[in-house]
């Protein structure tokens, strides 16, 4: 018989697992890993509403995508265009970034799988006599290691020609040059830290769902068990 068991700690672990997976996925897909040096406004960069020059634009560069400003000569205005600069994996600007993409993708796939499974932990608490929380916690720890490897390798690719075009001639491995780090990089770091917190907290979720109070509720014949 399926017992729906909801506790404060298990629900918090589930929500945190989902948030971490989405945060890492959004960061990976974003082009805001590097913020390039400001591009000075030209005589064509005129704000139609105020008649004044627009602020200098900062292009951004991601692992496989970028955001830049393109000119519409017919309308004398400029729009921001974001999208992948690499049509396939081999066109990613640096071998280090290719490795980063692989490690991050593997970590995110594991996190998304755990996030999906975590939704069903209210009904299923074990798989082949092993706690599903412990299995998911182990997978989250492995995913965290993949994410760390990807984040360590990413700065090694700052010396590639693509990064130099955005960050100036002084950019090199682990040196930003004229660039600064964007929100996507910090989000990926924060998500990695939260991944390990989830891995540790999964043990607390397992303890909460197998506590004496839960067993008492099951023995009383209750199918829906909610505990703080």
From TrEMBL:
GO terms for biological process: single fertilization. It holds the Pfam family L_HMGIC_fpl. It comes from the Eukaryota. The keyword Transmembrane helix applies. One of its GO terms (cellular component) is membrane. Keywords: Fertilization, Membrane, Transmembrane, Transmembrane helix. PANTHER family: LHFPL TETRASPAN SUBFAMILY MEMBER 2 PROTEIN (PTHR12489:SF19), LIPOMA HMGIC FUSION PARTNER-LIKE PROTEIN (PTHR12489). This is LHPL2 protein. It comes from Calyptomena viridis.
């Amino acid at each position: 018989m399926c017992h729906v068991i909801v506790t404060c700690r298990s629900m918090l672990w589930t929500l945190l697992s989902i948030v971490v997976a989405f945060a890492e996925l959004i960061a990976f897909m974003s082009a805001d890993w590097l913020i390039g040096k400001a591009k000075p406004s030209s005589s064509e960069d005129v704000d139609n509403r105020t008649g004044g020059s627009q602020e200098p634009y900062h292009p951004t560069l991601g692992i496989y995508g970028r955001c830049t400003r393109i000119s519409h000569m017919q309308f004398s205005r400029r729009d921001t265009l974001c999208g992948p600069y690499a049509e396939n994996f081999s066109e990613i600007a640096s071998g280090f970034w290719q490795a980063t993409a692989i490690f991050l993708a593997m970590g995110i796939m594991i996190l998304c799988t755990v996030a999906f499974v975590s939704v069903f932990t209210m009904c299923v608490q074990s798989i082949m006599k092993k706690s599903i929380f412990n299995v998911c916690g182990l997978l989250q720890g492995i995913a965290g290691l993949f994410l760390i490897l990807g984040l360590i390798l990413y700065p090694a690719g700052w010396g590639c020609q693509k990064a130099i075009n955005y960050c100036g001639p002084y950019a090199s491995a682990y040196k930003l040059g004229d660039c600064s780090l964007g929100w996507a990089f910090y989000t990926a770091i924060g998500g990695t830290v939260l991944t390990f917190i989830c891995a540790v907290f999964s043990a607390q979720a397992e303890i909460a769902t197998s506590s004496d109070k839960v067993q008492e509720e099951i023995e009383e014949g209750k199918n829906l068990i909610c505990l703080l």
